[in-house]
Fold this sequence. Notes:
The chain is an all-alpha fold. The chain has seven helices and no strands. It is elongated, with a radius of gyration of 25 Å. The termini are far apart.
Amino acid sequence: MQIMKEKIVTVNEALSLLTQRQKEGNLSYEQQNTMNYLEDLVKLEDKDSEKMLKELRDAGLTEWQAVKVVDLMPKKEDELKVVLGGSGPLTDAILKKSFEIAKEYRKAAKEPAKTRKIEAAPEPAVEEKATEAKESDEAEEKASE
Protein backbone atom coordinates (compact mmCIF):
# COMPACT_ATOMS: atom_id res chain seq x y z
CA MET A 1 0.00 0.00 0.00
CA GLN A 2 1.30 3.43 -0.91
CA ILE A 3 0.54 6.53 1.16
CA MET A 4 -0.80 9.21 -1.14
CA LYS A 5 -1.60 11.90 1.41
CA GLU A 6 -1.41 12.27 5.16
CA LYS A 7 -3.81 14.37 7.23
CA ILE A 8 -4.70 14.48 10.91
CA VAL A 9 -8.40 13.79 11.39
CA THR A 10 -10.83 13.68 14.27
CA VAL A 11 -12.37 10.46 15.49
CA ASN A 12 -15.57 11.55 13.72
CA GLU A 13 -13.79 12.02 10.39
CA ALA A 14 -12.03 8.66 10.69
CA LEU A 15 -15.34 6.95 11.44
CA SER A 16 -16.98 8.70 8.47
CA LEU A 17 -14.20 7.52 6.15
CA LEU A 18 -14.52 3.95 7.34
CA THR A 19 -18.33 4.05 7.14
CA GLN A 20 -18.09 5.27 3.56
CA ARG A 21 -15.60 2.54 2.70
CA GLN A 22 -17.84 -0.06 4.36
CA LYS A 23 -20.72 0.98 2.10
CA GLU A 24 -18.41 0.27 -0.82
CA GLY A 25 -17.76 -3.16 0.74
CA ASN A 26 -14.00 -2.73 1.12
CA LEU A 27 -13.24 -3.08 4.84
CA SER A 28 -10.42 -5.32 5.95
CA TYR A 29 -10.52 -7.13 9.28
CA GLU A 30 -8.35 -4.42 10.89
CA GLN A 31 -10.48 -1.63 9.45
CA GLN A 32 -13.67 -3.27 10.76
CA ASN A 33 -12.14 -3.56 14.22
CA THR A 34 -11.03 0.07 14.04
CA MET A 35 -14.52 1.12 13.00
CA ASN A 36 -16.06 -0.73 15.94
CA TYR A 37 -13.57 0.93 18.28
CA LEU A 38 -14.21 4.41 16.87
CA GLU A 39 -17.97 3.98 17.23
CA ASP A 40 -17.40 3.67 20.97
CA LEU A 41 -15.25 6.84 21.07
CA VAL A 42 -17.34 9.34 19.11
CA LYS A 43 -18.66 12.01 21.44
CA LEU A 44 -20.10 14.63 19.06
CA GLU A 45 -22.26 14.65 15.97
CA ASP A 46 -20.25 15.25 12.79
CA LYS A 47 -21.52 18.80 12.30
CA ASP A 48 -20.73 19.74 15.91
CA SER A 49 -17.28 18.21 15.61
CA GLU A 50 -16.53 20.27 12.49
CA LYS A 51 -17.85 23.48 14.08
CA MET A 52 -15.83 22.91 17.24
CA LEU A 53 -12.69 22.21 15.23
CA LYS A 54 -13.10 25.47 13.32
CA GLU A 55 -13.72 27.47 16.51
CA LEU A 56 -10.63 26.01 18.16
CA ARG A 57 -8.46 26.85 15.13
CA ASP A 58 -9.92 30.37 15.12
CA ALA A 59 -9.04 30.64 18.82
CA GLY A 60 -5.37 30.08 18.00
CA LEU A 61 -4.81 26.33 18.19
CA THR A 62 -2.98 24.42 15.49
CA GLU A 63 -4.81 21.73 13.52
CA TRP A 64 -3.19 18.99 15.62
CA GLN A 65 -4.08 20.71 18.90
CA ALA A 66 -7.67 21.34 17.83
CA VAL A 67 -8.16 17.72 16.76
CA LYS A 68 -6.88 16.46 20.11
CA VAL A 69 -9.26 18.74 22.02
CA VAL A 70 -12.23 17.65 19.88
CA ASP A 71 -11.38 13.96 20.33
CA LEU A 72 -10.69 14.08 24.07
CA MET A 73 -13.16 16.77 25.19
CA PRO A 74 -11.26 17.69 28.39
CA LYS A 75 -13.48 18.33 31.39
CA LYS A 76 -11.01 20.48 33.32
CA GLU A 77 -8.52 23.17 32.37
CA ASP A 78 -5.73 21.05 33.83
CA GLU A 79 -6.67 18.21 31.46
CA LEU A 80 -6.53 20.64 28.54
CA LYS A 81 -3.06 21.77 29.62
CA VAL A 82 -1.90 18.16 29.72
CA VAL A 83 -3.37 17.43 26.27
CA LEU A 84 -1.73 20.51 24.76
CA GLY A 85 1.33 20.68 27.01
CA GLY A 86 3.97 19.25 24.72
CA SER A 87 2.70 20.86 21.54
CA GLY A 88 4.34 24.25 21.88
CA PRO A 89 3.88 27.40 23.92
CA LEU A 90 0.31 28.62 24.40
CA THR A 91 -0.89 31.78 26.07
CA ASP A 92 -3.29 31.67 28.98
CA ALA A 93 -5.85 33.48 26.81
CA ILE A 94 -5.73 30.75 24.14
CA LEU A 95 -6.00 28.02 26.77
CA LYS A 96 -8.93 29.75 28.48
CA LYS A 97 -10.78 30.34 25.18
CA SER A 98 -10.13 26.73 24.08
CA PHE A 99 -11.45 25.40 27.36
CA GLU A 100 -14.59 27.54 27.10
CA ILE A 101 -15.22 26.16 23.60
CA ALA A 102 -14.74 22.58 24.83
CA LYS A 103 -17.01 23.25 27.80
CA GLU A 104 -19.77 24.57 25.52
CA TYR A 105 -19.63 21.58 23.16
CA ARG A 106 -19.40 19.08 26.02
CA LYS A 107 -23.02 19.97 26.82
CA ALA A 108 -24.04 18.46 23.47
CA ALA A 109 -21.61 15.55 23.72
CA LYS A 110 -22.73 12.03 24.37
CA GLU A 111 -20.91 9.80 26.74
CA PRO A 112 -18.89 7.19 24.88
CA ALA A 113 -20.05 3.62 25.16
CA LYS A 114 -18.67 1.86 28.17
CA THR A 115 -15.65 -0.26 27.54
CA ARG A 116 -16.69 -3.77 26.77
CA LYS A 117 -15.53 -6.18 29.41
CA ILE A 118 -14.54 -9.63 28.36
CA GLU A 119 -15.15 -11.97 31.21
CA ALA A 120 -13.11 -15.11 31.41
CA ALA A 121 -14.61 -18.34 32.61
CA PRO A 122 -14.23 -18.61 36.36
CA GLU A 123 -11.24 -20.58 37.55
CA PRO A 124 -12.15 -23.73 39.46
CA ALA A 125 -11.30 -23.52 43.12
CA VAL A 126 -7.97 -24.96 44.24
CA GLU A 127 -9.76 -27.72 46.15
CA GLU A 128 -11.65 -28.76 43.00
CA LYS A 129 -8.36 -28.97 41.08
CA ALA A 130 -6.79 -31.07 43.82
CA THR A 131 -9.80 -33.42 43.86
CA GLU A 132 -9.70 -33.77 40.07
CA ALA A 133 -5.96 -34.54 40.18
CA LYS A 134 -6.43 -37.14 42.92
CA GLU A 135 -9.28 -38.82 41.00
CA SER A 136 -7.14 -38.82 37.86
CA ASP A 137 -4.23 -40.43 39.73
CA GLU A 138 -6.53 -43.10 41.20
CA ALA A 139 -7.96 -43.87 37.76
CA GLU A 140 -4.42 -44.26 36.34
CA GLU A 141 -3.44 -46.63 39.16
CA LYS A 142 -6.50 -48.83 38.55
CA ALA A 143 -5.81 -48.87 34.81
CA SER A 144 -2.21 -49.94 35.32
CA GLU A 145 -3.18 -52.89 37.56
